[in-house]
Amino acid sequence: MKILVCISHVPDTTSKINFTEGDSQFDKNGVQFVINPNDEFGLTRAMWFKEKQGASVDVVTVGEADVEPTLRKALAIGADNAIRVNTPATDSFQVAKELAKVVEDGSYDLVIAGRESIDYNGGMVPGMLAKLIKANFINTCVGLEIEGDKATATREIDGGKETLSANLPLVIGGQKGLVEESDLKIPNMRGIMMARKKPLNVVDPVDADKRSEAVKFEKPAPKGDVKLVDADNLDELIDLLHNDAKAI
Amino acid sequence: MSVLVYTESENGKFKKAAFEAASYAKGIADALGSSVTAVSFNAENTSELGKYGVSKVLEISNDKLSKFNADAYADALSQAAKKEDAKVVVLSQTANDKYLAPILAVNLEAGYAPNVVALPESTDPFTVKRTAFTNKAFNMTSISTDVKIVGLAKNAFGLKENETEVSSEAFEPSLDESDFSINVESVDKATNKITIADAEIVVSGGRGLKGPENWEMIEELADVLGAATACSKPVSDMGWRPHSEHVGQTGKPVAANLYIAVGISGAIQHLAGINASKNKVVINNDPEAPFFKAADYGVVGDAFEVVPKLIEKLKEFKANNA
Lengths: 248, 322
Ligand SMILES: Cc1cc2nc3c(=O)[nH]c(=O)nc-3n(C[C@H](O)[C@H](O)[C@H](O)COP(=O)(O)OP(=O)(O)OC[C@H]3O[C@@H](n4cnc5c(N)ncnc54)[C@H](O)[C@@H]3O)c2cc1C
Ligand SMILES: Nc1ncnc2c1ncn2[C@@H]1O[C@H](COP(=O)(O)O)[C@@H](O)[C@H]1O
Prior knowledge:
The structure holds two protein chains of two kinds. Chain A is of the alpha/beta class. Chain A has helices at residues 37-53, 68-77, 92-106, 125-132, 189-197, 234-244; strands spanning 2-6, 9-11, 19-20, 25-26, 33-35, 56-62, 81-85, 110-114, 136-147, 150-157, 160-167, 170-174, 200-203, 212-218, 227-229. Chain A has six helices and 15 strands. Chain A has a nine-stranded mixed sheet with strand order 11-10-9-12-8-1-6-7-13, sandwiched between helices. A two-stranded antiparallel sheet of chain A has the order 2-5. Chain A has a two-stranded antiparallel ribbon with strand order 3-4. Chain B is of the alpha/beta class. In chain B, helix 7 (291-294) links the parallel strand 17 and strand 18 (297-300). In chain B, helix 2 packs across helix 3 (95-107) and helix 4 (216-225) runs parallel beside helix 8. In chain B, the strands form four sheets. A seven-stranded parallel sheet of chain B has the order 7-11-6-1-4-5-12, with helices on both faces. A five-stranded parallel sheet of chain B has the order 15-14-16-17-18. Chain B has a three-stranded antiparallel sheet with strand order 8-9-10, with no helix packed on it. The chains are: A alpha/beta, B alpha/beta. The complex binds flavin-adenine dinucleotide (FAD) and adenosine monophosphate. Adenosine monophosphate binds next to helix 1, strand 6, helix 3, strand 8 and helix 4 of chain A.
């Protein structure tokens, strides 16, 4: 089984978000980048398929050279090969199209992507990719088993879960649950050394059209001060929630 | 040329998200000088949609679509959009809507903006405001394709009544085998519990509650308020509560009308995921907890004293206001 894990390179969850160039660009200054958490769960599940079922695991990112440390980290966790499509990622459809080319060239059976990237929160790339390559697509995936060319997946739905089955090729949008938090691996020294020698192939982009553009960013308006209520006067809280907030 | 809206239903009843999406679609239709056509799947009382500005409903009744199926639903919606020559398609952002949206976008060769929080800034170019960086910022997105798909964030627009005369017609999309290549084997869903996604009020507990045995009061508080229960990430990681209750940047997003956080410190990853809630209350014994900077209302105190008292007071309040 050939697995491709799509990795989005995102600001660390603790990052302060700022913008430059007239609020048109995200300010990368001083920001630490990481593997998108949803993708890290997917990558870890892919390592399980590698160990238990002999799968090969490649990772791919659409982005410029500055994403390479993130791909190296994925190699250090245990991926076999990394691919970087050499173009900035600016639109979900464009990214999906670039990834479609990579999947077709590599004839992957299973593509593991994340439910959403925590920067752009599009939740669009995996579904678009699946339909571009005419593969099955399962979103918000919290469990995945593969037997031969058949996949059984658990999907989180509002208020519960459902179990689905589908044939490969399959694209999933994964998240926590694919593996547990405690299964995530911090790369060890040996992994990091080996990652340096593993292939990181830079491929040219295809001519992908864009369908949307982020024209401007804005930060939320600063919030007013908290109204403190004395712990011995909870009637006041109820009054505020009822009359002020109209929430109860 | 109309604005098309997907109105999600469950067991024949529309979800609140469907009415909100319809209200929003009406806003766009007014800006474009057009009208709203809704698509419903096995819904019972489609005339209800007229209250929120829908003037026509394409009613799909099909047993094969009794369970949600992203491919088939997206295919049906694409056919409806083509039939109506819709240039704008409005969705909400439930788990199902988020699942089918990118498929629909490929089918219709449309650009898609998710998590949209307001009516378009302009319709030409078509520009909408959406959240980004998990609610740490907003982003103006312009869509350049002929057909545009807008995913409306929960509780961002609200319900707007707009009594409209509504006509309905049966719609039979032509579906084929490829729409059913994913099989639903089983569904495991608690039917009597309010979900975080649907809830108006969410009561959430953190590590400050010390252990799973102390969740009884959280559940009781939720019960009194008709709220869903949620928790911080470490609480679900330690197995005190199920993963499905984990909210935050890497968990479920919460966009409730009221979010009550008990014994939660207010880490940036937690706040990012719940910030879209309208009113936030924190109960914490440490006045320095960062949550107090993000909350609208706060009580500095021991949860084990405050919560039981609050439950009693709320019961009284409910009895007097019933
Ligand atoms: C990559 C990444 C992603 C993350 N994603 C998320 C996420 O999605 N969601 C999330 O929640 N976290 C997330 N976190 C974790 C986050 O950083 C915090 O560690 C977590 O939110 C803390 O949970 P807590 O507030 O329950 O616990 P703590 O930080 O331990 O806070 C407990 C609070 O309870 C208070 N307290 C103690 N006793 C009492 C009492 N008797 N009465 C009242 N109050 C009391 C304390 O004063 C304290 O403020 C993420 C972290 C990382 C690194
Ligand atoms: N630039 C990218 N390169 C590779 N994969 C990506 C990229 N952007 C998004 N993805 C994948 O698509 C998922 C969802 O991203 P998004 O649609 O941007 O929310 C991510 O979790 C990744 O798996």
